């Protein structure tokens, strides 16, 4: 399955022969699996035998066959099963051919030693070009080429390529090509199909499951079988004796789910002038990939009704795709970063949408650190043909900025096309480097640069390219059926509109899966078996009940008239609290978003547009989930109105539990009144604490739960303060360095005059300019320092407040 | 001092690797073999050397992943290789590298050069034309263990729990082998994958490791340690060796027999292996030093902490923005957008 892309400089292929138990042998080229001896027969029989059987129908003479790629000799072995007069095999890689004659000789049954075979070690395109000139014609052409991973590779799946192949085929010749997975990369599959279709071939799609490919996450695989003239009915096609492919498998290969077929007309063919294939390979429709299928099947045995879609969008670069998808509709509208993340085209084969969602980068800060004024000037100087309206807009922005560059958030909020386009360009360039997102942290959290402040973990996504093996197991699952180990999620008041102050923005609940599990926590109890992960720390139980995890040992269960503080190990209620409207509203919002997401998903399916892969169990899971979430919504009810908090300066520890400035803890009771928890006693009011007249003992389990959560908050605040402290020290030193340089420049200017040339960074400039730049640097550092110190002040206050409460509780 | 800059050729490989390996602020990301690996992964790498007469004094492996039209980013992981302690030479060399990068950026429409030398904070004023990058290439915080010393010294520098678990693993019959051939990837990957699944990491595909191992094994830069028990592979660590540093880049452990503490045994073997191969430092690669509960690294930092070591925090990735190519990209995009708005095309 190998052929190099045609370029003057041929990129070298790197081979890896993997030996497994027994005689198992596998070939990888540049890391991609080409064949595994455990199941390669299935692949090669299905690739070659139907094509040759069809070619056989057209002529009684021995066949003339061209094999492009396939230097391993395995497709050739299948070709030689037929009555063939001559086979040309063209592969650019002498190393693969050498292996075919040595390591793979047993496997390919010494195919290269057959006298009917002629091997050409050269580029397939060059070979085909030469053939066309010689008016050479074949009965069958078998393309067993590597999957495209670069723009150059795509040429072997293009309109031009199939046009050239048509030239070397006889009038009833048959062509078959290795394609891609119609399931994992549906549009890419149809793009190849359409490139053939547009060249007038009768094209039939083939799909089959190859265990070795599935294991590596390649998905069910696809071929495209094509006839220069109509292929007729394939239902009764005989593959010949002694095949490992059962007749039923071959028949089933011709049937594709309707939802997969439904997107065929959307896929543009690859062509030199209008590249499309690589974009499709890198950007599989997410809804097509995530689910499975139980769709009605379309049978291509009898013929195809699929057309050859004409036209479509013009050539699109990643940037123009991104602009089309992400730019606000109106000029003055600020850009929506969430939208960019959802619609930005992916450009790297390892990058996934989930990774982009994980990035949680403060793009505003980065944009804010660029020299916007210099940039606008450069843009204005760039294009003399800048449309007048655009020129006016940029000049207006420049004038506005002369009064001082605003903080990054405001700059983004101003909108304007320059800033919007800049954001898109910057994010797009950064997505070209996905290595920072791999295996570097739970949830795949990338190294989001943390300057000047602490990284605040966003609710994150668990994503894995491979199909989960744990679906349906006794585990908490998310929307996609991904499992979550339980007991890892902590109560985050800011998800639920609590009053607990946090510097980070409120994360939006999203249908994307969930947060960093922590392997050091104890194993989950069976309590939550079959539960559904709603958000980072909220779960919907099988009965529709909603639960919010507080810590590894406690959770809050939402009842119709109370919040029940529960122990996780034995599901014992510890204390009944007021049904916090903020918590209920937060849960309702998360539920609403999920239900809506599922509705969109199902509607997409019904409209046939999304063309989801849905196996039966997924369909069942979706409808069961929908029912459960709707039940949960009903059960949850309305939040009710927020009561007035009677205490000044109280901070929420968790829903309906507050730390007071006195160090006492206020418990909001189910009847709306408050109890005060102080030491190991409960009091009716704070003044009763002073007069030492308790109403009773505080339950031990209640104190334990509050203490654990408080301890967690206090520890984390302390850690955040340490992190901030390190940032502040660094920033102060940077400030001192800049001040030192400023002093140096000022002395220099005084002694040598403003025309003196000095070093600034790696550049040389007039000392006056260096002073201006240093003053600007100092301004930035000063602002940063003020921000950090402000944040530290807030954290100090919070930490002291909670630490005080913890002290009195203990 | 007249510095010249030119592309490095195969003949320069030895002297380049020697220079990069001896530079304390650099690392494997600047090695020749790492560039080869990344080329197999589809990157383009420009190998730039800065010469003082004929002597190689600085340079950079500039990586670029080709964009699908639009804009790109140049990056120098662990680089550039610059004599940071000699400020005059560093300034001149960095200038040459930036000029060469700027030229490359114009051709490739790269909007910035991202560098990530292992320099202490705060960022020195030599780098003041750079801005903090939105993403780091490698973790900014890491944990370094000094491996110079005999076993007793190394164990003595660990936390008691670390020492205890290493002993426990040995007593329970965990054996660790060092794999040196590509065939052992078949044993490494399932462990890596199991961990990724368990912890919700994004996991590189198997092919990534084939390319990695094919590029680095022949150079002696890669070691894979496998901990086994009764024929079961239980834990693995993939270590990159460059200069006097061994970096724990990837690892994993099985879902079963976790009480045997195989992960401790693997790192203990890797620490000693690093020492025996001449490394001074074992880099745990990614660490959360403050104890933040919510931090992405919180879980595995607790594990790494047991081996002792010193937490470091570098300046992180820094971007040198190329305003000309950026303006070019923006101008063209804006014209296209304007044309679409006014209906003149798209």
Largest sheet of chain A: 7 strands, mixed
The overall average pLDDT of chain A, rounded, is 80
Oligomer state equals heterodimer
| β-strand number of chain B | 14
Helix content of chain A: 25-40%
Taking all Cα atoms into account, the compactness measure Rg of chain A is: 33 Å
Largest interface: A-B, 131 and 102 residues
Task: Work out the number of β strands of chain A.
Answer: 28
In N-to-C order, the SSE pattern of chain B is: EHHEEEHEEEHHEHHEEEHEHEEH
**What is the percent of helical residues of chain B?**
25-40%
Q: If strands are numbered along the chain, what order do they take across the biggest sheet of chain A? A: 6-5-4-7-8-10-9
Head-to-tail CA distance between termini of chain B: 52 Å
Largest sheet geometry of chain B: 7 strands, mixed
Kindly state the mean pLDDT of chain B as a whole number? 91
Number of helices of chain B: 10
Question: Your description of this structure?
Answer:
The complex is a heterodimer of chains A (810) and B (346). Chain A is α+β, with helices and mostly antiparallel strands. Chain A is built from 24 helices and 28 strands. Chain A has a seven-stranded mixed beta sheet with strand order 6-5-4-7-8-10-9, with helices on both faces. Chain A is globular and about 110 Å long. The model of chain A is unreliable at 1-10, 289-293, 437-489, 499-526 and 607-617 (pLDDT under 50). By secondary structure, chain B is of the alpha+beta class. Chain B has ten helices and 14 strands. In chain B, the strands form two sheets. In chain B, strands 1-2-3-4-5-14-6 form a seven-stranded mixed beta sheet, with helices on both faces. The mean pLDDT of chain B is 91. Classes of the chains: A alpha+beta (810), B alpha+beta (346). At the A-B interface, strand 1, helix 10, helix 12, helix 14 and helix 15 of A face strand 4, helix 3, strand 5, strand 6 and helix 6 of B.
